[in-house]
Amino acid sequence: MAIFAAMSELQVYNTLSRKLETFQPINAPFVGMYVCGPTVYSEVHIGNVRTFVSFDLIYRYLKFLGYKVRYVRNITDVGHLLDDSEEDKITRKARLENIEPMEVVQRYTVDFHQTMQAFNTLSPSIEPTATGHLIEQIDLIQRIVDSGLGYESNGSVYFDVQAYNEKEHYGILSGRNIEELISNTRDTDGQEDKRSPLDFAIWKKADPQHIMKWPSPWSVGFPGWHLECSAMSTKYLGTTFDIHGGGMDLKFPHHECEIAQAKAGYGHEPVKYWLHTNMLTFNGRKMAKSEGTGVTPRQLITGDHPLLSQAYDPMTIRFFMLQAHYRSTLDFSDEALQAADKGYRRLMQAIADLDTLQASQNSSLNVAELTDRVKAAMDDDFNSPIAIAHCFEAVKWVNLMKEGKESLNNTDLQSFRNFFKEFVAEVLGLTAASAGESVDKIDGLMQMLIDMRQQAKTARDFATADSIRDQLLELGFVIKDGKEGTTYTMK
Amino acid sequence: MAIFAAMSELQVYNTLSRKLETFQPINAPFVGMYVCGPTVYSEVHIGNVRTFVSFDLIYRYLKFLGYKVRYVRNITDVGHLLDDSEEDKITRKARLENIEPMEVVQRYTVDFHQTMQAFNTLSPSIEPTATGHLIEQIDLIQRIVDSGLGYESNGSVYFDVQAYNEKEHYGILSGRNIEELISNTRDTDGQEDKRSPLDFAIWKKADPQHIMKWPSPWSVGFPGWHLECSAMSTKYLGTTFDIHGGGMDLKFPHHECEIAQAKAGYGHEPVKYWLHTNMLTFNGRKMAKSEGTGVTPRQLITGDHPLLSQAYDPMTIRFFMLQAHYRSTLDFSDEALQAADKGYRRLMQAIADLDTLQASQNSSLNVAELTDRVKAAMDDDFNSPIAIAHCFEAVKWVNLMKEGKESLNNTDLQSFRNFFKEFVAEVLGLTAASAGESVDKIDGLMQMLIDMRQQAKTARDFATADSIRDQLLELGFVIKDGKEGTTYTMK
Asked: Higher-confidence residue: B443 or B49?
């Protein structure tokens, strides 16, 4: 089957082996992919949006290749502790705003979904929540305790990193070793329950005033953040699955801990391919709210930010993100977004023009060669910037064909059209800007009426031609006849 | 405070007492409201949409009055058994489609949220899922067992309705009594574990092949459907809260069982005011897919249904729903929707015109009297049809002022403007039509093309007529010729 031949070409960069590997799913054509989702205590960070857009591209390309992908992305609604503190991010927000933690969760989950929709990311197949999987998490903690690698201390349960490291390598994913980690550890308060400062909580006993808490064999408390992803990925994808993704800031300690938990609880490596997206900067600097270099998705979309000169369509921002490889850093700036906006519009105009091209007797261009180049770029660890560069070769072709300088025969034109329409819409996930569909429909109807007016003119039926023009004017469309043919504007 | 004076005027019809009662929240200005949400195994039924639009109106009006409302609406993602069967609705769909039950849940949860957004309903404050509250449900089952009103039988746990009825009245909400219920019971298979056919499962032991199951003190299984609402409303609103709502088909047995569970588990009435919405019909008949009288929200919005002549904007449908009181049945029909569409547009035009009105020296109209009438209608058990009728009085005023036949001074014009803008947008939840303008433009262009096709037919130029039809089809417009003229639908 052609599709399986194509499959074997895909190379992915595996953080675990630090090299490109041929993608071979455990149980093709099925692929299991888990991506760490947001902690829903504030508006999603634009860096997270980039991560989710990157995995959306990966999800879409795997589907394009014919894989049946189960894509699981979680919602962290409990247990994500603030650094060096015993407080959970969501509980803190709820305390500050004097509402129920689950109201914080609901508000920012809705906001997250709306943002993801604006950027045209597909919904994951399953979107499990940490609070929805307490029983599964308690089961995994019990397994870890039974394996001898978890210990209870004053109602909390900790993972024994040193004991684990005697058998396995703690730090295998991020390339660290335990001696180095120990020497970098500072003494912090509230650590006296642990055998070693490297140990991490898999269950925390709750203070009496804590709201989000559940009964367990050890105490009334809540699960550690690292634990939820292990429990939920196992529930929906099995104890070993194909792809685990996330931002590179999650490599250590979050993903390192996931590996340790899975090995302790289930006895083997949880993941075949670990994929990590790189970071964002803004005007060359790390984004930090305190320095005024932070920018939210909403600010980009509305243009409401001192360093932005205009509002950007979410499709422009998506296009801009895809113009960098997911493993490269990406620098946002007003100028770069303006350039991306032009490029995006040029690409979409060419896609719209595809329908107007006429077939010729002969082909002067090699369609298969160009589409192969696009696929080869994507097969090279989802290299969207190179794939987009080849799409702009196609844009050039469209314009040359419009001018009559190049031609395609009927078969070639069909495959050219089909491939680029599908690739741009279904793989890159780019659609005509927001009010897209209606605009397309209006455009289609206008083309029909402009053609009919032209026919009337050719047949010297000026009454009909004028009547069409006048009726359109009444509806708010102004027709202009020019050298390049007839165009229109909407009032 | 003005706001508290206003509060005491609100009357709500309480299903439990079968009469209008003055609304007095347990802990004003806070109000707790729980509404039974969808079972996410298929596209949401238009009858459910009406229920959620009705409670959206109630939520919005309570907020308008100044109450701080915590609105909880659940998602049923497990445990909703099919009638006379041991199979769960979601598990059955997953089995038929050969996917994981949580993939079914995700697909239809996303679809539900998109539909709710289209109808401009506000997100509830908290949207808990049944699978997210297993621990809480198991805790409630244990309480019911401890109270002597629940019994275990072969790993399942049942609620003992007859024992409960010795102390309390089972049927109090729906006006039934146990003798009548017993005499109406038929013998069905799979009931041998129960002491009485009236008893209902609060925990079901799962078959080995069952996917959605969890450990419990009684068996590996899953909770009964009635149980989740008791557990989740208690968790987020307390053991007694102000308002519980749902469609009237849920009165019995679902809400009746909730009352029984709460009294057994927590020892008192769970809810102060029970509110129920009435049913929908379509062309005067109960909607039933099998009879072709079913219509989905998507069909109404696209017009893709044999009994609809056109697509309807979700705002038109919302307006149509609000033109009936939530406790009245509502009959959908193409004609009624067309009339609603005209009314809705007239109302929105007047709202837009408000900004163009000029103040005069004197007022010839009594603004306070009209706004009081609108509020009085809403205070009368949320009587939106009467409130809307008074809004049309305001529409008349706007048009008379435009013609210079009536006038308002500056102060009166301000309060007239502010009240009606806020009431229509924030309480009725009506905004300018979604893609309104584009839809109008598309409609204008379509009328031109339909006329031109008709002219071609009249001139016996069938080639042109057919070409118009074919080109429109390609753009996604389906033309239908009928007795009343030519209409179209959008794919």
From this structure: B49
- Kind and range of the H or E element at B19? strand B19-22
- CB pairs below 8 Å between A and B: how many? 95
Beta bridge partners of B280: B330
Sheet of strand A156-159, all strands in order from the earlier edge strand to the far edge: A150-153, A156-159, A200-205, A221-223
Kindly tell me if the per-residue pLDDT of A2 is higher than 50: no
Amino acid at A260: A
Of chain B residues 125-184, which have a CB less than 8 A from chain A? Answer: 125-129, 131-132, 134-135, 139
Please state, in angstroms and rounded to a whole number, the distance separating the CA atoms of residues B207 and B221: 8
A244 DSSP assignment: E
3-state secondary structure of A74: coil
Hey, what domains does chain A have and what are their CATH numbers? 2-277 (3.40.50.620), 281-427 (1.10.730), 436-490 (no CATH)
What pTM, to 2 d.p., does this model score? Answer: 0.86
Helical (H) or strand (E) element with B369? helix B367-379
Please, which residues 442-471 of chain B have a Cβ atom closer than 8 Å to chain A?
442, 444-446, 448-449, 452, 468, 471
Residue B477 tokens read as 């417009």
pLDDT band, residue A290 (cuts 50/70/90)? low
B103 inside 8 A of chain A by CB: yes
Q: Count of CB atoms within 10 A of residue B255's CB?
A: 25
Backbone phi and psi for residue B123, each to the nearest 5 degrees, phi listed first? -65, 140
B chain contacts of residue A126, beta-carbon cutoff 8 Å: 100, 102-103, 105-106
Q: Kindly provide the residue ranges of all beta strands, DSSP E only, lying in A55-95, ordered along the sequence.
A: 68-73
The position carrying tokens 């009606």 is: B420
Work out whether strand A200-205 and strand A156-159 pair parallel, antiparallel, or are unpaired.
antiparallel
- Chain B residues closer than 8 Å to A107 by CB: 123
Give the DSSP letter string of B322-342: HTS-TTS-EEE-HHHHHHHHH
Q: Name beta bridge partners: A70.
A: A32
**Cβ separation of B126 and A471 shorter than 8 Å?**
no
Give the separation between CA B49 and CA B38, rounded to whole angstroms. 10
List all residues 6 or more positions away from B485 whose beta carbon is below 8 Å from its beta carbon: none
Q: Which residues contact A268 (CB under 8 A, 6 or more apart)?
A: A239, A240, A262
The CA distance from B56 to B33, in Å, is 11
CB within 8 Å: A103 and B126: yes
ipTM of the complex: 0.83
Distance (Å) from the alpha carbon of B132 to chain A's nearest alpha carbon: 3
Compute the C-alpha angle B166/B172/B176, nearest 5°. 90
